[in-house]
Write a structure and sequence with these properties.
Chains A, B: It catalyses: L-glutamate + acetyl-CoA = N-acetyl-L-glutamate + CoA + H(+); N(2)-acetyl-L-ornithine + L-glutamate = N-acetyl-L-glutamate + L-ornithine. Chains A, B: Substrate binds at residues 159, 185, 196, 282, 405, 410. The structure is a homodimer of 410-residue chains. Chain A has eleven helices and 16 strands. With 410 residues, the first copy, chain A, is an alpha+beta fold. Chain A folds into two domains: 10-278, L-amino peptidase D-ALA esterase/amidase (4-Layer Sandwich), CATH 3.60.70; 287-407, Roll (Ubiquitin-like (UB roll)). In chain A, a hairpin with a 2-residue loop joins strand 12 (345-348) and strand 13. In chain A, helix 1 (62-74) packs across helix 2 (92-110), helix 2 (92-110) runs parallel beside helix 3 and helix 5 (209-222) crosses helix 6 (259-279). The interface between A and B is large, with 62 and 62 residues.
């Protein structure tokens, strides 16, 4: 099912997080950031089944604790409120109180129980939230089901991002149209000053939160967990999926005859957002996609792919449009996965550079032209160990990565 | 014993790999590189006890296989021959034959059995060695016990390095002077075009190869394995220690009364070389030293320290002289080690920035001044979990790292 959109799953032009029935969104300027929008909300007119995955960093920001508590209560939420400009991370007791207050004010504003509210923050670590600004901002949140509402939300969650990340897929379940819309932010896998990866996905599918959670966890491993910009993992990363059920299909589960198109729509949404994040990596000029076949397992294939795409040397070589396969085989060698040093194939785009671990003569000009003329650089590896396959995505390492991260805070 | 030179272990000005009795060295230009010296040898007038550690990359270059075979035969070698400019890695059968021929020609030239010869290569991956140049070069190797001989050897093993790395310590064992001299190369932890970490250490101590091997393995974990420039691990990394025994002390082992000064001399030699490599990381402007205390074990302390010093975001912040402790706590959080999110202290030089995981008010100016005015930036972390402590070393991430690695091969 990897990346193959069956005819029943289509991408919707100008689709967004408000395309699925029941959802509205907004974004505004509260004053936490200097100028740009910094507070947003997604609202669902009914309590939505919810699933979420969080950063595996042992240091987790206060809003993650509060959101986990909300979701644990009933597996449903109705409102999700996000601020950018301040991560409310490493802020101790006061930070936790602030996150609770943010949830309470949002619950009052949207007139829903507190445990129907998720809160999340992204931005500077170690500084307290300007709660006066946040509170008066929350009171002004007016969500709409228009594209403008979705765009404003998307703007409000961005930090060092240079582009919006959004996508929407549709499919049929029980003959009813089901939409899945998503937005994301993130440009360093983390930049604890002003980054973090966040993604919010909405759908009108009818699905229980446990089933949704299982699908999200599996899909996250193959999409959001397969991208890397700099290998750092934020204290605030979070992916939340809300399902309103307003498509009125029979409740989805893996035994439902239309489970596959729904699963693919959700998977394509997450993969698209993940690739958009990788493409917008800090300072990136190109998206790198690594496809590994012939690994011991699918998991190992993903691990090898991620090691290659995470190598600063490979990333620098792509920036320099240098078909440097030595750096690729080197990353394969230290991936910690099962390999046979004598049976490795490596191709860069259309150019085969290594077959059975033996260098082959290839045209450096052709390889260079491929790397210069394409926005997405595809690296293909076959390990010839077994049948595991998997992909990972990243970006090249440019002067601008250093500029952005050396100069940001000061 | 970490880093504390007792009065009985002293650093020798202008000491080198030929300071220990019995050793001579040389370096010359064979034509593998465009201009600079590219072939070197260390010779010992007697068969020397030998210990070695190799890259943990599953892809290992041909000369590593040949050298392992030499050492396995008797645990002794007399000659070590190195070329730079070509790594003889991923070169298949022909590469292995070339490495054997390099060993055979060296054995003939130095008139020793083949298994008394170690060979090693560093440079471009995936190209065959120009054996005509290597063979005629080997025939011209004339080692001397002068500082010039040692310097020529050091020049011959360099690639993208911008400075020589060498050190020599002396101590007393059984009342006799024992010297330990070392050289190293490496500036990306790997740059498969023209890098790799190599280190060669000589001593006139009398010690069996098994005992030496055990000491080297332990010490390597705390020194060479605690540095990172870019997290990549070469196919060619190798550390070799040769012990001539000509100091004529009683054979050393941990029960020998003078074991500790010898061990410290060897450890200081390796630590000094490791730090010199980190300081000369590609594009580096500063050495970063991270000291972690209060970890569950010494190993975990080292692991946390290495995660911090390996974070591109921390490295960029040091380059930008930004006391960005948020990036440090973030790396601690994803280190995979036992931590308590509520009990972490972080200091940058003299400036305490976090106590018990609570941000403390500090002077940004003082922190910035510290980072601007020092060549070595010390980051101190206390986890307050248990008593494990350990250090790691790295360098900042500058525009030049990208320039060197994007533009090198082409």
């Amino acid at each position: 099912m990897k990346g193959i959109a069956t005819p029943t799953v289509i991408e919707v032009d100008n689709g967004s997080i408000v395309s699925p029935q029941g959802f509205s969104a907004t974004g505004l300027y509260s004053g936490v950031k200097r100028k740009r929008l910094d507070l947003g909300a997604i609202y669902c007119e009914v309590p939505a089944s919810v699933a979420a995955v969080y950063t595996c960093n042992r240091i987790q920001a206060a809003p993650l604790k509060v959101t986990k508590e909300s979701i644990a209560t009933e597996g449903k939420i109705q409102a999700l409120v996000v601020n950018s400009g301040n991560a409310n991370a490493c802020t101790g007791k006061k930070g936790l109180e602030d996150a609770y207050q943010m949830r309470m004010e949002s619950a009052n504003h949207f007139q829903v129980p507190e445990h129907y509210v998720a809160v999340t923050s992204t931005g500077v670590i170690g500084e307290y939230l300007a709660m006066d600004k946040i509170v008066s901002g929350i009171k002004k949140l007016e969500t709409t089901s228009t594209l403008e509402g979705a765009e404003a939300f998307n703007q409000a969650i961005l930090t060092t991002d240079t582009m919006n990340k959004k996508v929407c897929y549709q499919t049929k379940v029980d003959g009813k149209t089901v939409s899945v819309g998503g937005v994301a932010k993130g440009s360093g896998m983390i930049n604890p000053n002003m980054a973090t990866m966040l993604s919010f996905v909405t759908t009108d599918a009818n699905i229980e939160s446990e089933v949704l959670q299982q699908a999200l966890s599996t899909i996250t491993n193959q999409t959001f967990n397969r991208i890397t910009v700099d290998g750092d993992t934020s204290t605030n990363d979070m992916v939340v999926v809300m399902a309103s059920g307003l498509a009125e299909n029979d409740s989805l589960s893996p035994t439902h005859p239309d489970w596959e198109p729904f699963y693919i729509a959700l998977q394509q949404t997450c993969e698209s957002l993940a690739k958009q994040i990788a493409r917008d990596g800090e300072g990136a000029t190109k998206l790198i996609e690594v496809q590994v076949n012939g690994a011991l397992t699918h998991d190992e294939a993903g691990k090898v792919a991620k090691k290659i795409v995470g190598s600063d040397l490979v990333k620098s070589a792509v920036y320099g449009t240098d078909a440097n396969w030595g750096r690729i085989i080197c990353a394969i060698g230290y991936s910690g996965c099962e390999i046979d040093p004598e049976t490795i194939d490596i191709g860069i785009g259309p150019v085969q550079t290594l077959v059975n671990s033996q260098p082959v003569t290839f045209s450096e000009e052709e390889a260079k032209a491929y790397m210069e003329n394409n926005e997405t650089i595809v690296i293909k590896v076959d390990l010839h160990v077994a049948d595991g396959s998997g992909k990972a995505w990243g970006c090249d390492l440019s002067y601008d990565y250093v500029r952005i991260n050396a100069g940001y805070r000061t």
